[in-house]
Amino acid sequence: MAEPIVALDAAMPAPSRRPGRMTVEIRQTSPAGQKILIRGAGLLIGLAISVAILAWAGVGLGNLANEFVYAIFSDSRSVASVLIQMAPLLIAGLAACVAFRVRFWNIGIEGQMIFGSIAATLVAITDFGPPALRLVVMLMAAALGGMGWIFVPVALKLKLGISEVVSTLLLNYVALNFLLHLLYGSWQDPKSSFPHSEQYDAIERLSPLGWENVTLALPLALLLALLLWWALNISRFGFFTRFVHANPKMAKAIGIPVLGVTCAAALLSGALAGVAGFAISAGIEYRMTQSFFFGYGFSGILIAFLARNNPIGVIIVAFFVAILFVAGQSLQVFYQIPGAIVQLIQAIVVISVAAAEFFIRHRLKWTR
Amino acid sequence: MADFILNWLVVSPAFAVPFALAALGLIVAEKSGVLFLGAEGFMLVGAMTGAGALIVMGGHPLLALLAAMLAAALVSLIFAFLVVVLRVDQIIAGLSMVFLCQGLTSLISTQQGWTNRPISGLDPIALWPLSELPVLGRLLFHQDAVFYATIVIFIAFHWVSTRSLLGLRLKAVGENPDAADAAGVNVGLYRFGAVLCGAALIGLAGAYLSVGVAKIWVDGMAGGRGWIAIALVIFARWQPWRALAGAVLFGCIEALIPRIAAAGIQVPQYFMLMTPYVATLAVMIWAALLRSPRTGQPASLGTPFVREERR
Amino acid sequence: MTSALELSGISKSFDGFRAIAAADLDVRSGEVHALLGENGAGKSSLMNIVAGLYAPDEGTIRVQGRPVRIGGPLDARRLGIGMVHQHYKLVKSFSALENILLANPEGGFARGRATIDTALARLADSIGFTVDLTKPVGALSIAEQQRVEILKMLVGGARLLILDEPTAVLTDMEAERLLAMLRHLASEGAAVILVTHKLGDVMRHADRLTVMRNGKTIATATPGTLNAGELTKLVVGTTTTECAAPAQNVGAPVLSLTSVSSGGNGRRETLSDVTLRICSGEIYGLAGVGGNGQTELAEILMGVATAAAGRIMLEETVNITHAAPKTRRAKGLAVIPADRHSYGLASELSIADNYAIGDVYSGKYGGVLRMKSSVAQSAAGVAVAAHDVQGVRSLAHKAALLSGGNAQKLVIAREFAGAPRVILAHSPSRGLDVRAAAAVHARLRSARDGGAGILLISEDLDEILLLADRIGVMNRGRLVAEFAAPADRQAVGEAMVSHG
Asked: What ipTM is given for this predicted complex?
């Protein structure tokens, strides 16, 4: 025997006094009911935190119940305003959903909305095309505008490997400044000299459905949701996106055109975002304003996240986010709560649901 | 012309400091393997807290900066807990933090009436006799305390990362957490600490915007600088000195914008305002053409760590 | 003789799966103790418990006779326990010195480096090797990286050394040298645990051995008292011996590579000027130490990487050098990739999806506009049953839930569905137990006898010698030698490591 084996007394960890050890274990399955329960609990915790923050800001529980439930469901006009608000949110949610299906982090939905609206407004201002088809041309233009604006990040990611998170986001700022350039410049409303475009003509607006102020924007959004559901859940393209999402390496080796699928989904995302911009300009405001897009980018991400990238789920989540938007507006008016509260609540909800999902994918084990 | 250039260069450091500090904060956090997309949000937290602290407590602006760093670190506890302990997707968590901070700063500052209230800010400190040097004196030795601190912080970080066990472990955790773990390094603790320190630096960067430069708090005043800093870090391949060089470049670009208009050169205003973002993209493209954007990236960036994973 | 390490009643489960069930182990100072068992028997998990990485659910650990609790890697180190893991725990971008310092930080940064230098100088005599301390370890060979791991452990003063499958990645010669060194360390008083599934290593170098099967330690013995057959039976449970079965009907070439090179500048694994032909009805075994261009060759054949030069032909008429994976598959190429969870399966998707994707373009499972998932499900059900994929509770379950052997069977079920003409099998039995490996081998043989040409790439020389009708050897990206079966093991081994 050479040197003695470590100085035992000094080095030996005490055998019994220490408490046990908490270990985290990955788990592969958990029952469907449990998943729903865990996510539901996360949602509730997030909402509870939001309520607490609002209470701190001076909106009590009673007032909240009033703004979020009573005021909205008591008369048809408020219900209608939620449905009106829902249309662009739904489309923005779809835009996020299709991009996330191929792990393309499109954070530039707002920029693409701006360019969608700019393209549609260009058609409206120049009275391009036959009047009967004007709306369709505007819709196409909006889709192309949004698609064009996402094209650069898509190309940069696929060709050069540049993170789309940063590039799509930076382009939001560029798009915003370009919008302001137009609205404070050549596109300024000649009638009022306000920084927004002139009003769309009647044929350039999504027509009202005849109930309150709800316009064609809502059926359009629902139709898009159905189409996307088909594309992602029924068609072969959707089948491919599942593999691209789960394991792009394997997808490529097995013969899926990964580049093409990613590119198509990302461009579709941009096109949908462009249409969301069109839905606001042609379906709600009837002109292009300087902040029509505000907040939709993150809302789209939130909606797709909570709907787990399922277009049908997006419809449901978009409805609730629309309630939040509408209630947020009245909080702003009646309680001087800044509009950013909507973002705050959404962020809290995402965080708490994402945090709760820990318990779906892991198990805590206490060993002694 | 010489005057124009000198006046431009003299104000550039003030514009470069926020980029430099934010980029360094990001490097600190990301060296540990945590993808840190929340920079924009933490800059806002720092900016608002700095202004708020001055309004509420008065006192020396440096105390306000300290408060801002603390506040950003405090908020980053949420982020650290999410990504280190709960293993939440780091992109989702980072994005959510941006919007959480945007909402939070907007709400708090409105409630407290801090928005658009002018505050007393930092004064320049002349480092005599160096400040008497021609050109360089005004450029480098007649700046405020944060400018000098930034240089010290960069040197300190360089020392820690190349000459200490702390730096060795930090890098190991970001490169290969399994190896670090087997070597007895507490991966979670290091990542937690890195996020906190990183957020504090980013908070300082934000506070410098309100307390140091603008001397006022305005909603959303970070204006995308957090995102530009993220791009800078990729461009700098996670090397602090390259990041500092990038920050100086962007500081100069930003400082140039108001000067061009003032000099009577006719460029549409909003196109001028686009330049930082377009320049950032251009720099990223240029860097990517030279080398893959992943060069220098910590190998485990964005990957959560758990020990008892059975494969 | 004192026990350096005594484990009793150790149990550990992961996600409901009982990896270790009441295992006992007794290792003495001064011996090389082999821990023997099949892949998945629980050897590595048990050793990870000793090294402090896993916490046991139950059981007691004694070091030098005293009960201890090993709460983490630091505790293990303080107890003089060191482990070389199967996948090295090295920071690739760090130098060897930095890696050793990371694990042995006593004395701080500057002084620590000096201490390590002197420790290494002292150790160099007793272990008989040195390593380049300044290069990034990622640039070192596998054998050199292993040395860094061993030094890391010895500098820390480890007296209980655990090595997990240390010879798996070494050539025969390197393995002999390593085992001799371990013997020497044991003779100086250290206790060495050699985790392995190689019976030969055990018979020649171990003082005692313990056999694990299905998470249990089932026997402890001295090698001299058992013959190889008895030992095999202990390890596997039954005696299944595979015999070589040479090809009967070798036909025309189905895959030919002409002067294929991969891009990359002079790295060890860069493929250069590889020419080989595989005929229908034969298994061509490509042997070589890992990292000598096999992965590059496989990726180029799969179509996920492109050849910088050269030509690849299927059936002598179809040039697939630049064809997309889809085209290659349509022309009759099937692939069993090395890493099932990397190129083989989308683990998060269902078993049915993973099966159906293989033949999605045929329209069998629905057209472009509409996938018919029910058709895919039933086809997957039939294939899963035909290929004896066990553990499928539902076809809608994630593929991640399958064990290694069954996941491999699923890959094979998918790849063999279209009666392929050419099969690329890259380390098809890696990580499988003997029975699962035998099943995979039987599938390959029957595909060969059905007329397919098979390229078998494997680092396991035994597998190559067992299956291949012709053998090629890869060394530094080149095809350096070819042999006809039955080949001389010694000669093949020499070609694998020659520097010519």
From this structure: 0.93
